[in-house]
Write a structure and sequence with these properties.
alpha+beta; 18% strand; binds FE2/S2 (inorganic) cluster
Length: 136
């Protein structure tokens, strides 16, 4: 589900202008981000950590479809947070509902690195989609 949230202010954030890398932990999965290819998909802000993760088959829960209306996409930016857009009041309001908050906590659907440095992101274990299909 992708879309927009009419109840929040649109983000005024420029995306990256150069290639950079995002490493998702604990998967130890590093992906190259090509500014020319953004947005990769429909969920989350264009160029957001959620957009990047989903495009590279890295699952992060995103119940609201990436429109800043839940907190299921909570991630922790372990490196490169200085290259990310500032969180908005709307994002902070949603983050208040997330468990395990840390200084680098962000909503993956709203956090957009500018590409000046590589970024390391931890996906909390409660946000990893580890559902597996088993025969019934
Ligand atoms: S997916 Fe709901 S706030 Fe990010």
């Amino acid at each position: 589900m992708g879309g927009t949230n009419p109840f929040i202010e649109p983000l005024q954030t420029a995306g990256p202008t150069q290639r950079y890398r995002v490493t998702f932990q604990p998967l130890d999965a590093t992906v190259d981000v090509d500014p020319e290819a953004l947005p990769y998909g429909r969920d989350g802000q264009p160029g957001s950590l959620l957009d990047i993760a989903l495009a590279h088959d890295i699952d992060i829960d995103h119940v609201c479809g990436g429109v800043c209306a839940c907190s299921t996409c909570h991630v922790i930016v372990r490196a490169g947070i200085e290259s990310c857009n500032e969180s908005t009041d709307d994002e902070e309001d949603q983050l208040d509902n997330a468990p395990g908050l840390e200084p680098g906590s962000r909503l993956a659907c709203q956090c957009i690195p500018n590409g000046t440095v590589d970024v390391v992101v931890e996906i909390p274990n409660w946000n990893r989609n580890q559902v597996s299909e088993t025969p019934h």
